[in-house]
Amino acid sequence: MPTSSLTPPSQLLLRGWALLGLGALAAAGLLALLLALSRSPGADAWLPGASALFHRVLVVHVVLSFQVWLLAMLAAVAIALAPGPYSLDGAGLAAAALGMVLLLVPALTGRGEANLGNYVPTLHHPLFHLGLAAVAAGTAAAVLPRMAAWRHGPGGFAAAMMALALAAALAVFVLDLADLPPGADPGHANELWAWGGGHLLQVVNTILLMACWQVLCVKACGTAPLPGHAGRAALALPAAAAWIGPPLAVLLAVDDPAYRQLFTDLYRFALPLPPLLMGAAAAWTLARGRARHPEAALALAWSLVVFALGGIAGFALGQGDTRTPSHYHAMIGGVTLGLMGMLHAVLLPALGRPAATGAWVRAQYLLYGGGQLLHALGFYLAGLAGVARKTAGAAQGLDSAVKLAAMGLVGIGGVIAVLGGVLFVVDGLKRALARHVPIEGAVVPPPAGANDAR
Known about the structure:
Distance between the termini: 12 Å
Mean pLDDT: 88
Order of helices and strands: EHHHHEEHHHHHHHHHHHE
Low-confidence stretches: none
CATH class: Mainly Alpha
Strand content: under 5%
CATH topology: Cytochrome C Oxidase, Chain A
Helix content: over 70%
CATH architecture: Up-down Bundle
Radius of gyration: 21 Å
């Protein structure tokens, strides 16, 4: 089987990005405890400014558990598939790690107004903005040079497509920042600049997930769901579609309603087909073959199911109700399950750790996957019943048995998913932090079958 060979320096970089991603999830989990405390009855009596603290901590919790985790794993997977070396690799990791620290400072010191916008919520504070920029720049330094690896086998091609889509997303973020209306309210400005680039980040996440599906399927069954040119096309089509975004950002004003609608249409019509075809092929491969690596197969199966639920929900959204969070929680949950499988079955073994097997790792996939499934299903049912999104407590209007049952399912699923996530983070950190012994010629299976060395 053709493989990506990791030199000891590449292994250290891979380990660093994996630790950054796991550290972001761990910090997000600790902040979730602070969120719970700040919403407890009478919190204002013993925790001054509990309400403002809740919103600040919520912003950082979301950014760490979504943006930083996913970008760190994007870099880790890109390095594993296209090891390099590249001259900016070390600087990129250092910048992203510094950025994560800067993101935490305003929230923990009570600074900055929270803006709970779509895709990238922010705190209106220079340190937070600098932290976001550092994470983005660090990820770009690690990933973008790997566009040059597109000819270096299936792994290099997959890394190049991730880089191509990321470049489009970053370009749109920059163009939209430059086009903000003068004197715009910080909350409105945040919603404007994050809209186009935020949509394109979901394209990046989808390409990342499809590369994980390919590798996990090779690991589990010995063959890729879409080998050869079919697999390359599935990765290339969304990467090419992402580059519709920058011309839109140049031609239309960032506050033009048509601009918002065009990015929604781009996301809705250009993105679904490649993962649908690859997901169906992966499910067929799993169903007809005997898994050589049951844990990798389980991670792949749960990722396919949860991501599919999110995709279906995305075509039947409501206006301002909880069907929207049902969609994005399931989509991000599906991506995270794929990354959990990659870390346990592929990335950590490339660092000399044995592939995670047994009931302990299966419990992580079952709890996180099953919990996310219940969580998203509850949100969707609640939305059908009319529960508004971004509300809590009495504002939810839980005035019927259906609404109460649906939101109860949201809570139960959330608790189960959090438990699975905690087990994953603890296990992942324990294995990643173990004494590192570089391995000469460590290998990563490529996102292709055994006969596809092209």
